[in-house]
Amino acid sequence: MRAMPHQTEERRYHHGGLRAALLEAAERSVRDHGVAQLSLRDLAREVGVSHAAPRRHFADRQELLTALAEVGFARLGQDIRGALAETPDEFCARLRGAASAFAHFATGNPALLELMNSTKHHPEAPGVARASDEAFAPILALISEGQQRGLLREGDPQEAGLILFATVNGITTLVNTGLVPAGRLDHLIATAVDLFLRGSAP
Amino acid sequence: MRAMPHQTEERRYHHGGLRAALLEAAERSVRDHGVAQLSLRDLAREVGVSHAAPRRHFADRQELLTALAEVGFARLGQDIRGALAETPDEFCARLRGAASAFAHFATGNPALLELMNSTKHHPEAPGVARASDEAFAPILALISEGQQRGLLREGDPQEAGLILFATVNGITTLVNTGLVPAGRLDHLIATAVDLFLRGSAP
DNA sequence: CAACATTGTTGTCAGTGACTACTTTGCGGT
DNA sequence: ACCGCAAAGTAGTCACTGACAACAATGTTG
Q1: Which terminus of chain B, N or C, has less C-beta within 10 A?
Q2: What is the pLDDT of residue B4?
Q3: What confidence tens digit (pLDDT) does each residue in B66-123 have?
Q4: Residues 6+ apart with CB under 8 A from B66
């Protein structure tokens, strides 16, 4: 009932959107209490179904966490693409914009990032790999473009893109664990992008 | 008895080294089954004490995990210093040696790295922050030395060091999650260090 | 209309973290 | 040497969890 605000007092037997509702609830739980505290029974209670219902949609707890990581990568990809859509068509500005969007997503969702960084990619579950490739794709495209326009040195664009991706990821991990104060994030990211551009100059 | 190989068949009431034994067992468990599966009762059984004994040394499960993360950083620091002790006194070689040691520690201990990357630094528990600072110190010293000798551009050595540290950390995360094949680790690290050196050149 | 697959419910079980009360032991002070 | 006490360990308890099995509700399709 509470999960379907347009229905009458009586809820139908079928929830009608349980998988999505569970993932939303999971994201809230992870945000508020961290990954370790996530509980299938908690989610079921929150969504208003019986305690075993979530296992109709996710074989086990790990499968739900994996699906949530996929949501995280999809969200990240959106944020990066959104930032690029608002950035002037100037290569360095776009690279900075993408890196900044990643950093802010990551520090705005520390627990989700942690989950994304600990979810193994399996051939049987191609969703996470696909989603992470899609999140990475705008950065890869930028690097390729930079190389083609002679703004970056030639080489494997995927390699350079992975290094930049890893750098931003690593910096946000330092901030999320408290090793580096959050107030230094933007400056560190900007410095890292500058360093990357100098180091990748033709 | 099994935990104290020099004793007779009868174990004394006091274990005599239970905290250390628990941390060793915890490291094995995390290595074999991942952080999420770590169980205080499991550890107690393995070490040969009652199920509640571990809570005499660690207030709760999280405190034990935090202590283990500290062990991880201490181990990392040792590996980096060990690598530097065996590297010729040539700046670039040493920087590469340190980065490589970090990368190999991280990919050789994926679950431990994950724990280290998810352990929050709290003022009440300064051990982790101290251990991670000590792990970072050789890299910081290298950067400072490189700057003083005019091999790197001037600037905040801590900042440059953090960027390099984050980059290696991020790359190993990509490898540990399977986004990047393990066989590409050394090449990626070498490329990242080269890029760092070019980007930091005076 | 009926069969059946999907989805949800109820109940059960073993294991867990955390807590409490009690016991053991070794150290330090007198 | 003796004793008090703190530290460390034991045994029991409780609520909660993930996972599983059996049953029930429902909607789609032939």
Answers
A1: C
A2: 42
A3: 999 999 999 999 999 999 999 988 999 999 999 999 999 999 999 999 999 999 888 7
A4: B119, B125, B127, B128
> Would you list the domain boundaries of chain A?
1-58, 62-199
**CATH number listed for the domain at residues B61-199:** 1.10.357.10
CB pairs under 8 A between A and B: 117
CA A140 from centre of chain: 16
CATH number of the domain located at residue range(s) A62-199 in this protein: 1.10.357.10
Measuring from the CA of residue B51 to each C1' atom, give the nucleotide at the shortest distance: D10
Is there a common fold for A1-58 and A62-199? no
ipTM for the predicted complex: 0.92
* Chain C positions with any atom < 7 A from a protein CB: 7-12, 15-21, 24-26
- Paired tokens of A1: 């009932």
For B78-97, b where at least 16 C-beta lie within 10 A, e where not — what string? ebbeebbeebeeebeebbbb
Q: Quote the pLDDT of residue B1.
A: 38
- What CATH class has A1-58? mainly alpha
A31 C-beta less than 7 Å away from strand D = no
And the tokens for B25? 């067992």
pLDDT surpassing 50 at residue A8: no
CA-to-C1' span, A130 to D22 (A): 38
